[in-house]
């Protein structure tokens, strides 16, 4: 017995308001300074419309606001939940049920912070008391801004990453990481121990179901978080709340970032150029990640 979802917790349905919470638009005059024939602007607009459909398209402003009772909460507490409106989802296997939550974690300095997440599991009748094996799931880089939380995307950021686990009967408890979804803090991008807090605390709240046993799985940025969980003392913090930890699978963990960037630069002529550029694009976000952990940086 690992994970039991209590159907009686299913709460009021939300009103969805789509607003621009991600993706910077620019006027034509900016790229025209660098690009005589406007190819760059055209490509930018095409990319932007694809992005806008993926990021923040179903963002529910009310839900992602910091909960009214955050100030009296402690790490591991539940703050909010709502069912995900299935008709707004795309590319999710049929029969997947999903809820989104807000809970309390800690940042790199140990300060408590609100974080959002979603839980997806195979559809089952409310009455049958279904029990699922549980996975705390840590996603790969999805961005660094408020609108980049997987729980606010029509795809729930499924990229051949977590849905196959649901198809095999697991409940996937997937943190957004602090700063993605809710905006109480900036996202501490690539500070793996911060994401490790988000990944362990996500199995604490009772509203997430009773988790007797769990394991963590993460990919890329999340591979780094899952690895940090396995290495950390977090697993000994509150064994009663935590349930039994069975182990970690860290897929392509995003660690040793300098080596990664150098390999991308050196490999770009011979290997997959798009993939190498992708890594370099993410390296740009490291600047924001670093700023998010520096005290009193005006950029955060
Ligand atoms: C970005 O702004 C331009 C006008 O400056 C507009 O035509 C375009 O639709 C906007 N794109 C998005 C995705 O909002
Ligand atoms: C905050 O309030 C929600 C209901 O709005 C409740 O479900 C949750 O348990 C509360 N959390 C704390 C820490 O008080
Ligand atoms: C789910 O979204 C659809 C499409 O926007 C909408 O018609 C429906 O009312 C929503 N359902 C709920 C319960 O909010
Ligand atoms: C978060 O966003 C809300 C608007 O939705 C804004 O009022 C608030 O100031 C923002 N908080 C931070 C810390 O940026």
UniProtKB/TrEMBL annotation:
Q: Name one GO biological process term.
A: antibiotic biosynthetic process
Please give the Gene Ontology molecular function terms for this protein: triacylglycerol lipase activity
Q: Which Gene3D superfamilies match?
A: alpha/beta hydrolase
Its keywords, alphabetically, are: Signal
By its UniProt entry, which SUPFAM superfamilies does this protein fall under? alpha/beta-Hydrolases
The UniProt record lists the keyword Signal: yes
Can you tell me where the transmembrane regions are? none
Q: Where is the signal peptide?
A: 1-18
Q: What is this protein called?
A: Serine aminopeptidase S33 domain-containing protein
